[in-house]
Amino acid sequence: MDKPYVIGMDIGGTNTVFGIVDARGNVLSKSAVKTSKHQDINLYIDEIYKELSVLIEKAGGISKIKGIGVGAPNGNHYTGNIEYAPNLQWRGVIPLSKLMSDKFGVPTVITNDANAAAIGEMTYGAARGMKNFIMITLGTGVGSGIVIDGKLVYGHDGFAGELGHTCSIRNGRLCGCGRHGCLEAYASANGVARTAKEILQNQNVDSLLRNTPIESITSKDVHYAALQGDKIALEIFEFTGKILGEAMADFVAFSAPEAVILFGGLTKAGDYIMKPIVNHLEKNLLQIWQGKIKVLFSGLKESDAAVLGSSALAWEI
Amino acid sequence: MDKPYVIGMDIGGTNTVFGIVDARGNVLSKSAVKTSKHQDINLYIDEIYKELSVLIEKAGGISKIKGIGVGAPNGNHYTGNIEYAPNLQWRGVIPLSKLMSDKFGVPTVITNDANAAAIGEMTYGAARGMKNFIMITLGTGVGSGIVIDGKLVYGHDGFAGELGHTCSIRNGRLCGCGRHGCLEAYASANGVARTAKEILQNQNVDSLLRNTPIESITSKDVHYAALQGDKIALEIFEFTGKILGEAMADFVAFSAPEAVILFGGLTKAGDYIMKPIVNHLEKNLLQIWQGKIKVLFSGLKESDAAVLGSSALAWEI
After folding, report:
1. Is B155 on the interface with A (CB under 8 A)?
2. Are residues B152 and B209 in the same domain?
3. Are the CB atoms for A162 and A141 separated by under 8 Å?
4. Neighboring chain A residues of B141 at a CB cutoff of 8 Å
5. Long-range contacts: A190-197, Cβ < 8 Å, 24+?
6. Listed residue (A89, A85, A67) closest to A76, CA to CA
7. Is A170 in the B-facing interface, judged by CB distances under 8 Å?
8. Helices (DSSP H) in A71-112: which residue ranges?
9. Residues of chain B positioned with their CB less than 8 A from the CB of A156
């Protein structure tokens, strides 16, 4: 193969990680810079260029690179821009794709981080060989990437797949988006912490979680308590899994996927979260789908997932 | 064009209508038979053949026909079968596509009626030129056909697009599918009648609807009362539009369509139903989509819509 490698770059609110990847999903090399270091996007691109050039040289030079795939919050595949990302310091519309391809001289494509994760699973992970699946990322927020007929769904404007902002509970919790009751307000790491606080404040029950100051409880603490058989922790996962299972039943009614694939911090809870999800998904599915929808955890190694996901985009250039 | 015509055939619980259609969506001729007349599917096909042959001869013979498109409840595009359709008298799996193509000697494709309606709108109706839209049929039930990137979404098993069975109200009304709270239980013609009954039974208010025996109130009666300014009728449309607008906001978060297109009996209520739908859709949309999603009524003449929708499938053979 003339150009055996692609570059994957994941822009997070804190760090930007990037690496060089081969067609089998091996990460040859990777590195990172602080996303928030540069208010000026051009200085940010300069620093990325400096760091990445070292990796590119080691891989045999830019002539070996097919393209660059970028996953970024509010990354729009159609325009190549990052548009009004609330968690990044650059305001307005950033033509990131153009800035990168001008700098490096290779084609660059961009999409949001959850879409990148979906392409990553399809190319190297749990969705290999699947043409219809839904990726749900359970991190600080809840993101999603939808694959139909082997292609990522971008929709009319490039912003399709905002399943974290479908309504789980009408007039429910305030979400970061300003609306109420979104799936994200319940099924994200933050959502799990909020559920913990609500239960501990409203119920007069013993729990290991009471050993942690209520404002600093995280989903990790809940997992840790569950491992020790804490009933409140189990109740929190049951509630979270119910919300997710109910939501997923509606997603299935939309696109009839072969599988729903879960990624992100919350999946570390393993069966504590998987069992209630599957239980409530099955309870809420239309009969034709009962017992037929796979629910899987990501097949990508967590430390490589961000780079792999975004790199996979570049194979499609 | 060698084969300038297609045949469209719509199998309903009561009637099967079929006709010959040209590329511009003109229905050259059409006819119908009773779907329920024949318990034996082969006798049914024989009768369709007898009736359709007359129309085919008038159009210049079977050599002018590119193919047959069939819309049918539970029609599966992948298998060509009608599978376990609760409203048809044939039990189990009916290989309708094969029966038709064997009989007529031209390719036959099948899908469910709402999908056929979506293809019809894209080919001849309100969605001409659109690549991303959602069709919602508001009839006895609530059906849907989803078009992404110019293609109908069939999903992994061919049954995608069951938006009538997404959950509008958790633990809400019993739906025909056996589950509770489905959109269909509220936004179908039946759902509107149920809403009318609930309000009239639970509220001690005057209404023109009290002139009709409560068990026989239909969505038409509600429309008629609304035309005369009846407050309860307006409240019924407001409630129905709220349920639909809320549901549609979640559908938009899935596929970011250019438009949602509404078809079926309930749309005859015009602005009485459209205004609350748009109002509640806008209230529930994520900010990026506010003011950007078109909500349109079908662009097909009602009497031709069933034949046009299914015929449009045959252009894609």
Report:
1. yes
2. yes
3. no
4. none
5. A190/A140, A190/A141, A191/A142, A191/A240, A192/A219, A192/A222, A192/A236, A192/A240, A192/A266, A193/A217, A193/A218, A193/A219, A193/A222, A195/A236, A195/A239, A195/A240, A196/A221, A196/A222, A196/A232, A196/A233, A196/A236
6. A85
7. yes
8. 96-104
9. 131-132, 256-258
Beta-carbon contacts of residue B128 (< 8 Å; ≥ 6 apart): B121, B122, B299
DSSP assignment letter at B64: G
Residue B82 sits in the same domain as residue B170: no
Give the one of B131, B155, B250 whose C-beta lies nearest to A256's C-beta: B155
Phi, psi of B260 (to 5 degrees): -110, 130
Instruction: Clarify whether residues B114 and B140 are in a common domain.
Output: no
**CATH code where residue A178 lies:** 3.30.420.40
| Rounded CA separation A55/B151 (Å) | 41
The enclosing H or E element of B41 equals helix B41-58
Here the ipTM equals 0.93
Q: Is the dihedral of CA A186, A187, A188, A190 positive or negative?
A: positive
- Chain-centroid distance of CA A262 in Å reads 9
Q: What is the model's pTM?
A: 0.94
* Residue type, position A166, single letter: T
Per-residue pLDDT of chain A (317 residues; tens, 9 = 90+): 689 999 999 998 889 999 999 999 999 999 999 998 999 999 999 999 999 999 999 999 999 999 999 999 889 999 999 988 877 889 899 999 999 999 999 999 999 989 999 999 999 999 999 999 999 999 889 999 999 999 999 999 999 999 999 999 999 999 999 999 999 999 999 999 999 999 999 999 999 999 999 999 999 999 999 999 999 999 999 999 999 999 999 999 999 999 999 999 999 999 999 999 999 999 999 999 999 999 999 999 888 888 999 999 999 88
A156 and A101, same domain (yes or no): no
Same domain, A309 and A284: no
| Number of domains chain B contains | 2
Q: How far is B27 from chain A (nearest CA, A)?
A: 31
For residues A291 and A161, state if they share a domain: yes
Q: Is residue B161 a contact partner of residue B144, using CB atoms and an 8 Å limit? A: yes
Please check whether residue B147 is in contact with residue B132, taking contact to mean a CB–CB distance below 8 angstroms. yes
Residue A258: helix, strand or coil by DSSP? coil
* Statement to judge: residues A94 and A218 lie in one domain: no
Contact A167 B249 (CB under 8 A): yes
CB A16 within 8 A of CB A32: yes
Query: Do both B77 and B209 map to the same domain?
Result: no
Give chain B positions within 8 Å (CB) of A166: 250, 253-254
Segments forming the whole domain that contains residue A108? 5-120+303-314
